[in-house]
TrEMBL record:
Family matches, as Pfam families: ChaC
Enzyme class label: lyase
Protein name (record): glutathione-specific gamma-glutamylcyclotransferase
Organism: Aspergillus caelatus
InterPro entries to which the protein is assigned, alphabetical: ChaC, GGCT-like, GGCT-like_sf
Length: 263
């Protein structure tokens, strides 16, 4: 696994990402909200996975899905080697080799907008996330093409265990505790439950049939906490928002592609 943060390779003007993307365009991997709320100006969206990580709702959120007084919970990915040293009640969900993959979507940003999108993402992911680079394996048809084709290098934002928002206290990483926090969280982007339901539906929408076990386990727990009618409303709202967001994003991507072709 190749991964480095912004203190890694340096380019002449200090923009690290250019060392990984010398042609000036940019690939970004999303494993959380970027799956259903893509970056602007992308012209390709490719489902696929990265290896060597585990996705967990172990990152506190003090802005989009929570507040400084009542932080919500959002996902980060954790390097598998470090995760294996932690006590995770859901470790059995990651026992198979296929579970070592974190599925999501990669976006191609043309060189004409790469700087702008990089700055946008830095602002969007400001709450504890840092930039890293890792191989991404596109998904094609009925199988992932990682063994048949060269992976893409992707930029990815990760909430490292050293960042202040990572849940260091094992008690706060217990699935039921995470579910209870999500059930009552709310931030500037809306309810924390919406984030969870959107992630589950966005992962299902990648064409793989289901979200990962950690996400579906949390959905089950949060639904048990919420009143049945409230959970149903939140889920229906998430479904509508997902379809609206992806439809709008596809139109924007099509326009971006056409503009690049004319240039």
């Amino acid at each position: 696994m190749a991964s480095s943060n912004e203190n890694g390779h340096a380019s002449p003007d200090g923009r690290t990402w250019r060392s990984y993307f010398p042609d000036g365009d940019l690939w970004v991997f999303g494993y959380g909200s970027l799956i259903w709320k893509p970056p602007p100006h992308y012209d390709q969206r490719v489902p696929g996975y990265v290896n060597g990580y585990v996705r967990r709702f172990w990152q506190a959120c003090t802005d989009h899905r929570g507040t400084p007084e009542n932080p919500g919970r959002v996902v980060t990915v954790i390097e598998r080697g470090f995760w294996e040293t932690l006590n995770d009640p859901l470790a059995h969900l990651e026992s198979s080799s296929s579970a070592a993959r974190v599925w999501g979507a990669a976006y191609h940003i043309p060189a004409s907008h790469a700087e702008e999108v990089h700055d946008y993402l830095d602002e969007r992911e400001i709450d504890g996330y840092t930039v890293h680079y890792t191989p991404f394996y596109p998904f094609s048809g009925s199988k992932a093409s990682g063994s048949d084709s060269k992976p893409l290098t992707c930029m990815v934002y990760i909430g490292q265990p050293t960042n202040p928002q990572f849940l260091r206290d094992p008690a706060r990483r217990e699935p039921q505790d995470v579910a209870e926090v999500i059930s009552r969280g709310r931030g500037q982007s809306g309810k924390n439950t919406e984030y969870l339901y959107l992630l589950e539906k966005a992962l299902e929408g990648l064409g793989l049939g289901s979200a990962d076990g950690h996400v579906t386990d949390l959905v089950r727990r949060v639904k048990a906490i919420e009143k049945e009618d409230e959970a149903a409303r939140d889920e229906e709202a998430a479904e509508r928002d997902l379809q609206k967001s992806l439809s709008r994003s596809e139109e924007e991507a099509h326009r971006a592609f056409q503009n690049e072709e004319r240039v």
